[in-house]
Design brief:
With 661 residues, the protein is of the alpha/beta class. The protein has 5 domains: 137 residues, Response regulator (Rossmann fold); 102 residues, 2-Layer Sandwich (Beta-Lactamase); 68 residues; 161 residues, 2-Layer Sandwich (Heat Shock Protein 90); 118 residues, Rossmann fold. Helix content is 44%, strand content 21%. Strands 11, 12, 13, 14, 15, 16 and 17 form a 7-stranded mixed beta sheet that branches. A 5-stranded parallel beta sheet has the order 2-1-3-4-5, with helices on both faces. The chain has a 5-stranded antiparallel beta sheet with strand order 7-6-10-9-8, with helices on both faces. Helix 9 packs antiparallel against helix 10 and helix 17 runs parallel beside helix 18. It is rod-shaped, with a radius of gyration of 53 Å. 30% of the residues are buried.
């Protein structure tokens, strides 16, 4: 036996009460340079084993206190010594003793008298086994630690993946991942919501399932070439949802590269901008119409003065000429044209929201009912009219003439869309708009509205026509058949009334205009229509201070007023008017003044004049105002005004009404 194969660092515990046996064992093992510890009783041996933790125990069966079997059993029950190999030293090598020894945990036995060769062989075997076991245990421990660490890393990776998946799935942007052939392998929840396709429906397909055919093929070729060249493609795509509707999205499509710079996937991050584009379009349209409105308001102001002069001179000429004069018919044509021009300019003012209005609380069903016969005459017999009202319609606050203008313009538009006849439905209803108001309701806020729906069964409109429908002067009618201001005026009136307008149309099916006017909780204003006009007690010799900056309008107004027998004091400007009033030795009964004037506006003039003549009354005239009376700009509630262009009859009647008060 080569003693060098026995681990020299091993510790051997010998438990034996026989000094001779101990001496023999000690001599045999001394040559191996092993560390030897001795105990002569079972109890002492157990305590010694717990203290030094030997690598192997040689245990005699016959001991003075407890035998070797009990000693071995107790060693194996103790956690500190349970793994230490025990070799019995015995003179009793019968099978029963051997079985009992192995049953209590011994690994081997040596019979007495002890032979060195046998002892060393057994020690070598079991110490090497013990060392191998420890190595295996260390390897298992290390491997177990590695597995635990690997499992921890795997759990961390799984956790990170869960977080990543959750982030991808909950992202507002649509995310799509494909393989190198462009086959979809992943889509997130936003993709499902935007496109209408489920994950199951998308996986295995290619992104061209969304293709709308609204863009050139060259765009898609450029996209594919860019990403296959390992570059990032940025652009805008018009795609088609599962339900067939189109949507626009900005897309960033990138190649995914491995450590060898080889493409392994493609990832697209896309954001639906359809609603943003609609809002931008609405904003640009609103800006464009606002600009045109400012222009229209400026033109209307000057045009109103011109019309007032033209119509006024024509009326005065008719009064001064004999009724049988052939010029009378020509003057009638001038006045008729003037009325048409007046209607046109009022539409311009309504569109630009610069017409003076007198909003009142009213019920639209009463307006529509009163207009039934007029609408039948306007529409003609080929088109049937159907009206629908709820039992109790909410009230709105709007200028009555403008409400009538909305209905007439929409009815005329519907008639023109049904040249062969059809059905015109005018429906009124109460409508509540919540916080999830559709973007198609232009500037609509949540709240209660009265909905006026005007539906025709006509030709409908193309997308191009629909996009330009409310532009002033835009018309699809032949030259001379329309001004293109009717629907622009409707837009202006509705917007000014803080309402909303929505259009639904389809070519070949028909069109529905929806007008939303805010509900008001007030009693309906009673109209004076139908009441008898009282006799006006006006002497005819009252004095009127006239202030107008347009010379032609001034001359017409002065001439008309003087024909009624009134005294007229003509002023060049505000300061001149106050000077005239200060030097006038009689009473001035009425101030007739334009609102917007240089140096001193009409409101300030009226206020200063009342300091001289406290009982003086005032009539304001205007071609166009920046705001309406209820907004309290220059004209206020309770002020009396005449909107240009007016006839000389309207002028003299208004003067008589005011002086009669």
């Amino acid at each position: 036996m080569n003693i060098n194969t026995i681990p020299h660092s091993a510790t051997i515990l010998v438990i034996d009460d026989n000094p001779i046996n101990l001496q023999v064992v000690f001599e045999y093992l001394q040559a191996c340079e092993l560390e030897i510890s001795i105990a002569q009783t079972g109890i002492a041996g157990i305590e010694r084993a717990i203290t030094i933790i030997p690598d192997l125990i040689l245990l005699d069966i016959q001991l003075p206190d407890i035998d070797g079997f009990e000693t071995c059993r107790r060693l194996k029950l103790n956690e500190a010594t349970t793994d230490i190999p025990v070799i019995f030293i015995t003179a009793q090598a019968d099978s029963e003793s051997l079985v009992k020894g192995f049953s209590v945990g011994a690994v081997d036995y040596i019979t007495k008298p002890i032979q060195q060769q046998e002892l060393l062989a057994r020690l070598q075997t079991h110490l090497n086994l013990q060392q191998l076991q420890k190595q295996l245990e260390q390897q298992v421990k290390e491997r177990t630690t590695e597995l635990i660490n690997a499992n921890a890393r795997l759990e961390d990776e799984i956790h990170e993946r869960k977080i990543l998946n959750a982030a991808l799935d909950q992202a507002a942007e649509s995310i799509i991942i494909t393989d190198t052939e462009g086959v979809i392998i992943y889509v997130n929840r936003a993709f499902e919501q935007i496109t209408g396709y489920s994950t199951k429906e998308a996986i295995g397909k290619k992104p061209n399932m969304l293709k709308s055919n609204e863009q050139a093929l060259s765009l898609y070729k450029d996209l594919w070439k860019t990403i296959t060249d390992k570059k990032i493609w940025l652009g805008r795509l018009i795609n088609k949802r599962k339900d067939g509707s189109f949507y626009t999205e900005t897309a960033t499509i990138s190649p995914v590269l491995d450590e060898n710079n080889v493409i392994i996937n493609y990832i697209g991050v896309k954001r639906d901008i359809t609603e943003e584009l609609k809002l931008q379009k609405q904003y640009h349209q609103s800006q464009k119409m606002e600009s045109v409105g400012l222009l229209a308001g400026g033109v209307a102001h000057d045009f109103n003065n011109i019309l007032t002069a033209i119509n006024g001179y024509a009326e005065l000429s008719k009064l001064e000429l004999p009724s049988e004069s052939p010029v009378q018919s020509m003057l009638d044509i001038i006045l008729s044209s003037g009325k048409r021009a007046t209607s046109l300019i009022r539409q311009l003012l309504a569109f630009s929201r610069k017409e003076i209005t007198a909003p009142t609380v009213l019920s639209l069903d009463k307006i529509v009912t009163d207009m039934d016969k007029m609408l039948e005459q306007i529409i003609g017999k080929q088109v049937k009219i159907k009206t629908i009202y709820p039992p109790e319609l909410w009230s709105v606050k709007v200028d009555q003439s403008q409400a009538e203008s909305i209905i007439v313009n929409l009815a005329v538009n519907a008639r023109d869309a049904m040249p062969e006849g059809g059905l015109l439905t005018i429906e009124l209803s109460n409508k509540k708009l919540g916080s999830n108001v559709s973007e198609s309701y232009i500037k609509a806020k949540p709240g209660d509205y009265v909905l006026l729906s005007v539906t025709d069964t006509g030709s409908g409109m193309s997308r191009i026509v629909k996009d330009r429908l409310f532009e002033p002067f835009f018309t699809t009618k032949v030259s001379g058949k329309g001004t293109g201001l009717g629907l622009a005026a409707v837009f202006g009136i509705v917007t000014h009334s803080k309402g909303a307008l929505c259009l639904h149309t389809k070519e070949g099916v028909g069109t529905t205009f929806e007008i939303y006017l805010p509900r008001v909780i007030e009693d309906v204003t009673l109209s004076d229509t139908g009441q008898q006009v009282k006799e006006m007690c006006v002497s005819g010799n009252e004095t009127i201070l006239l202030f107008e900056d347009d010379k032609n309008v001034l001359h017409v107004m002065k001439k008309a007023i003087e024909l009624e027998g009134f005294n007229v004091l003509e002023a060049r400007d505000g300061h001149d008017a106050l000077e005239i009033a200060s030097n006038y030795d009689k009473s001035i009964d009425l101030l007739l003044t334009n609102v917007t004037l240089p140096k001193m506006n009409g409101k300030k003039l009226a206020k200063n004049l009342m300091e001289i003549f406290p009982n003086v009354k005032t009539i304001f005239t205007s071609g166009a105002l920046g705001r309406t009376i209820e907004q309290g700009d220059e004209i206020e509630k309770g002020d009396i005004y005449l909107q240009k262009p007016f006839s000389i009859h309207d002028l003299t009647q208004k003067i008589k009404e005011v002086l009669h008060q």
